[in-house]
Backbone:
């Protein structure tokens, strides 16, 4: 994926297991404005499927994700108030 | 049946009062809240222990008749005094090591997210439990209260 040119907020959820990363993501996404991008850093191996589902359910856009050395980076654009 | 306003809802029944069985309803409800769903849990029978102030942090893992124990323990050993405490201690040490959320933390997420946490009135009468013995933010109600809530849920599970 092409990383977004700008990340407006970073959420460090490394080392945390289900369901804490999505719970923290909900808090974090509330703190940015529509159109802004949240980057979530996670190591939970279930996070890919979970963040795909989370984005679909919340109506936010999962722009894409990368993985490097077991650390996943999710780029989520706030698409819903 | 889904609600007219399009907001999804999960309605759960928590009927067990062991540490391992307290997690699923709280995890599902807090995750639902993270996805902007509505969530409700009906705490009934031993599930009421999950929302008792004196019990919440002292729920135990049964060692007896639990074939999923990591070190398989014959029931005759599992029945010995101290085995439940040992199984509980092991589970708690994994929870800590793996940074799994604690039950009070998950309950806080549910409360802050506006989950409906319903303590079963009949269970309270049956077991002589007073509302003051329950953690904050609990509403007391019966089966009809829960069913009405669940009738508009998209997901409803008995745990």
Residues:
């Amino acid at each position: 994926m092409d990383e977004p040119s700008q990340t407006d907020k970073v959420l460090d959820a490394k080392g945390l297991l289900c369901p804490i990363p999505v719970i923290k993501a909900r808090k974090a996404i509330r703190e940015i404005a529509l159109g802004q991008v949240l980057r979530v850093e996670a190591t939970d191996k279930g996070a890919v499927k979970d963040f795909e589902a989370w984005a679909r359910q919340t109506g936010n856009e999962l722009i894409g994700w990368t993985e490097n050395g077991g650390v996943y980076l999710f780029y989520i654009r706030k698409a819903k108030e | 049946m889904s609600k007219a306003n399009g907001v999804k809802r999960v309605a759960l029944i928590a009927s067990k009062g062991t540490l391992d069985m307290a997690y699923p309803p709280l995890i599902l409800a807090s995750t639902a809240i993270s996805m902007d769903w509505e969530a409700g849990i009906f705490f009934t029978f031993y599930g009421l222990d999950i929302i008792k102030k004196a019990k919440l942090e002292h729920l135990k893992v049964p060692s007896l008749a639990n074939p999923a124990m990591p070190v398989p323990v014959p029931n005759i050993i599992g029945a010995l005094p101290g085995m439940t405490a040992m199984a509980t201690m092991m589970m708690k040490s994994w929870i800590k090591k793996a940074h799994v959320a604690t039950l009070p933390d998950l309950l806080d997420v549910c409360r802050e997210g506006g989950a409906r946490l319903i303590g079963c009135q009949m269970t309270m009468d049956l077991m002589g439990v007073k509302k003051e013995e329950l953690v904050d933010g609990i509403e007391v109600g019966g089966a009809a209260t829960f069913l009405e809530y669940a009738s508009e849920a998209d997901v409803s599970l008995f745990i």
Notes: Strands of chain B lie at 9-14, 38-43, 116-120, 139-141, 155-158. The longest helix of chain B spans residues 19-34.
